[in-house]
Amino acid sequence: MKHAKKWLACLLAGVLALAVFTGCDMLMSGTAQKDTAQAKTLMKEIDSGLTYNADLEEAACRVADWLVDDPTQQGTRSGLFMRKVPLTADSGNMTDTNVNAFIDHSSTWISIPQTVTIGLVMDNQSLAFTGYLYAPPLSEAASVLGEYAAGRTEMGAAFVEYSGETYVVALFR
Asked: Residue 57 domain-assigned?
């Protein structure tokens, strides 16, 4: 009976430790969210001449889902949401010159047409075989995304919630 109580205590301690670690991981894991009303408000701040496009919103959701699909590859840098991407010669993402091709080569399930502009910053010039994609915080998105919207007529967006902050994944056509 004495040994059974010790084993039970060890088992409960292990379960409690696992719950604590899982909870911590969930706090530092980003989540992709769709909020059409918030996206339309942002769109008007970026350019009042844009129209909202549901297909672009769905594509933005796919990109946002991919950005947060691996908690070990996400974080923040200089106030931006950051997704680390392993660079490999086989994938072609080391030599990509635009975000669309970089995402296409880095993911097996996202394909965004070249006619769509993705409002993310790409850095694949690392010597450590790691590339980065950066999404702006919602608080700065209107000013940052204006250059991506230039000459475009449609927009769709999704959001990433990470560590208490909201970041924007916007697509323009």
From this structure: yes
Two tokens, residue 43: 């769109």
* Calpha distance 159→35 (Å, rounded): 7
Q: Tokens 């409002």 correspond to what residue?
A: 119
Model confidence, pTM: 0.81
Please tell me the distance from the alpha carbon of residue 125 to that of residue 95, in angstroms, as a whole number.
9
Q: What count of residues does the chain have?
A: 173
pLDDT in tens, 68-84: 999 999 999 999 999 99
In a domain? residue 146: yes
14 conformational bin, left if phi > 0, alpha if psi -120 to 50, beta if neither: alpha
Contact (Cβ atoms closer than 8 angstroms) between residue 157 and residue 166:
no
Domain assignment present for 5: no
Return the sign of the alpha-carbon dihedral for residues 120, 162, 71, 28. positive
Q: pLDDT > 70: what percent of the chain?
A: 83
How do beta strands 51-52 and 154-162 pair? parallel
**Using one digit for the tens of pLDDT, what is the confidence trace for 2-37?**
656 665 555 555 544 444 443 333 446 899 999 999
Q: Which helix (H) or strand (E) holds 149?
A: helix 138-149
Range of the domain at 116: 31-172
